[in-house]
Design goal:
By secondary structure, the protein is of the alpha/beta class. It has eight helices and four strands. The chain has helices at about 1-15, 20-30, 35-50, 50-60, 95-105, 105-110, 125-135, 160; strands at about 90, 115-120, 135-140, 150-155. A four-stranded parallel sheet has the order 3-2-1-4. Helix 7 links the parallel strand 2 (about 115-120) and strand 3. Helix 2 packs antiparallel against helix 3 and helix 3 (about 35-50) packs antiparallel against helix 4.
Length: about 170
């Protein structure tokens, strides 16, 4: 049964057997193709095991899991890597503060694309951090209605997929 396979893979990964858990997660995903949570767990293990391209590609599965990312106006304007010169982009934080700290560094790569404006729709507790370390990003409290003057929006944890090979590299300072 797919739940049993998934639970076995979680137990293996929890015991530090990430590489051994990967085929078990894959089997669970094949047996339950509609389970976005299974694919999300597989994605995390793929990234941890060093299979970054597959892991970050599969990481978007988290957006189909209730309560992980939430909705946003104009889903058709979700950024998929289109040119940003002269455009306005909203970066949406998600999940925890550590994810915001780790993945906001991609803002520097976004600035290289010469957007007109970059918003960070983020946790209130992270607004000062983002404003201090990412000058040029306009912070917006995600407990307020979102900024609506945008061309595109993107979830923060989608950025590694859009900037392959840049995850471990230290971007230039803005």
């Amino acid at each position: 049964k797919h739940d049993t396979l998934h639970d076995k893979a979680v137990a293996m990964a929890s015991a530090g057997k990430v590489h051994e858990a990967l085929p078990v997660f894959e089997q669970a995903c094949v047996k339950a193709p509609g389970r976005a949570d299974f694919v999300h767990h597989l994605a995390i293990m793929q990234v941890l095991a060093g299979y970054e391209a597959q892991g970050w590609a599969n990481m978007d599965s988290r957006m189909a899991i209730a309560g992980i990312c939430g909705g946003y106006p104009r889903p058709e304007a979700y950024w998929k890597g289109e040119p940003l010169e002269g455009k306005t982009l909203v970066i949406r934080t998600e999940q925890g503060f550590g994810d915001t700290i780790m993945f906001m560094r991609y803002a520097r790569l976004i600035f290289d694309m010469k957007p007109a404006k970059v918003y960070c729709y983020c946790q209130p507790e992270m607004m000062d951090f983002v404003a201090h370390f990412y000058r040029g990003v306009e912070v917006w409290n995600h407990k307020m209605p979102p900024p609506m003057d945008f061309d595109y929006h993107v979830n923060l944890m989608t950025l590694p997929k859009l900037f392959p090979g840049q995850y471990l590299k230290q971007p230039a300072k803005t």
